[in-house]
């Protein structure tokens, strides 16, 4: 695990997306896709670099799958262009693209054995049986299915099918692999295991992954970068860390993880600080850096539950703090979740790690407490 | 009915072996027994009898002779005769040939149609299916007669062709094998299309996308994915066409030439012209045996498909 973390760190240090000279492997230029009146993908531009695991994250119907299908060639963009490895993909049919896809339903051929499924791509290239057999065997060994070569898909478990689908999509050694909800059909334990396996395989083969998912946890663990999509548009692109800590919209903040959101009005907007008046909090909000907004603009202040502090005594700083009553406590083992109803009527969610086995005088239901946060913990979004 | 009465009566029914499940299964069994097995036994019995003048026109199989003897007479003459007279073998072979060719043409014409319907938009599908089924609402005979109107020398097709100056003399189509094949293929086409459609309609389109994604051209994807997966539909449709086509009697008689030798026709002549009931029964039994083979293949395929978990 430590080695893997280092790899990821190296990947992030390299960060080709920060290097202006780096040539993107996939270039999506102003692509839109309309189905009749419905705009599935709305003017998306995106650069994806070699060796990345790029996650398209969004709710159902946000256009992420349509975008993926346009990369695979199953849909043609209504407007805009897609370049893969510098080549314009317009008019290139799916069977001529240097791209393979792992389908959400796996789409294994039910009348073929595992071996035949995996070897299918090579057969289409006109390779002989003698050439295909060792490569299929290698691939099956890599996904640990060497003993299942002669089985049919319906004789396999969900996790095994998923691995057959992965092996089949990797057999042609594509430069780009598209994965549509790759872990969607697996149970929680298997998901976690498979996530790490996917990343390992990706690093071993040096393939570029574009992953579509609605599961933010999946995106966070897999991705080098995440593109958050909403209503056909890319809302934000960034590393998992950037997306989580610096969301640029209310949508991103609320879609990724949990967040407490306070609506407010900017009263003082200076280069080095901002003061926000919020009826929802009941006291002023102080942000330790400037934001560029019009005076009196309505903004939203987002604070993650784990960055809030819950205390019995009133904090010395009167800003970024409000009194309230504990309404719910959920003990999760490693941490506890507190739902605190502020005097303004708003309920906030606070998580606190359970660092001690026996807390003296623990917080309890209906107790009056103060909720506060450090001035650098909050993020202000304007839309 | 109160619960206790119900319990009492269901207990009684169960004691004599009647449960809800038993009754449901029994109904089709009784149906098959009454309308298939018993008639079959009667025909089998007649096929071992001898002809005679009278009512019925065949001899009984068993007779009481003297006081204590039940004499059973099995006349295998009819079967020997079938084997000896080449007419019957020729008729069988030509029937099988006609049925095979017709089935092949039904498949060649029906597969694209079924495929087209299955891939049509949902709103079109029902309309297209209705168009396939619609001819069933008219009498079969009327439809065959309609073909006579189209095909005969002064029929629609010849008149149009001559009117356009494409031909000078009418093309003789009636009373030929051509007309007979047209009649059979036309009449049995829906039986090919419907099972094929119900198979093709269930196909998962992402399988084709996966094949194309892996480098198969759409045509190869069809050959490697759609075609093998539609095999149960092809077999079901082919059986539904082949089996009745072997015994087909009306169409060859109305559209085919006088020399067209079909086993159905031989059977008819044997029965009504020669009044040779035992001979006709022997032909019928042989026909059944010839057809049982493909039915058994079909059955085997079906159970295989069901046992193999099908494909989703």
Describe what this molecule looks like in 3D.
The complex is a heterodimer of chains A (383) and B (312). Chain A is of the alpha+beta class. Helices cover 25% and strands 32% of the residues of chain A. Chain A has a 6-stranded mixed beta sheet with strand order 6-7-8-3-9-10, sandwiched between helices. In chain A, 37% of the residues are buried. Chain B has a single domain (81-307), classed as MetI-like fold. In chain B, 72% of the residues lie in helices and 3% in strands. Chain B has a two-stranded antiparallel ribbon with strand order 1-2. In chain B, helix 4 (86-119) packs antiparallel against helix 11 (231-246). Chains A and B meet through strand 6 and helix 3 of A and helix 9 and helix 10 of B.
Quick structural gist:
The complex is a heterodimer of chains A (383) and B (312). With 383 residues, chain A is an alpha+beta fold.
From the structure above, extract its key features.
heterodimer, A: alpha+beta, Rossmann fold, OB fold (Dihydrolipoamide Acetyltransferase, E2P), 25% helix, B: 312 residues, mainly alpha, two-stranded antiparallel ribbon, 14 helices, globular, disordered C terminus
**Number of contiguous helices of chain B:** 14
Average pLDDT for all residues of chain A: 89
The number of distinct helices of chain A, counting runs of at least 4 residues, comes to: 9
Q: If you consult CATH, what is the topology of chain B?
A: MetI-like fold
Assembly state of the chains shown: heterodimer
Report the portion of residues of chain B in β strands.
under 5%
Query: Could you give the order of the helices and strands of chain B?
Result: HHEEHHHHHHHHHHHH
Q: What class, by secondary structure content of chain A?
A: alpha+beta
How many beta-strand elements of chain A?
20
The main pleated sheet of chain B reads as: 2 strands, antiparallel
The CATH topology name of the largest domain in chain A reads Rossmann fold
Helix share bin of chain B? over 70%
- Could you spell the SSE succession of chain A in H and E letters? HEEEHEEEHHHEHEHEEHHEEEEEEEEEE
Major sheet: arrangement of strands of chain B = 1-2
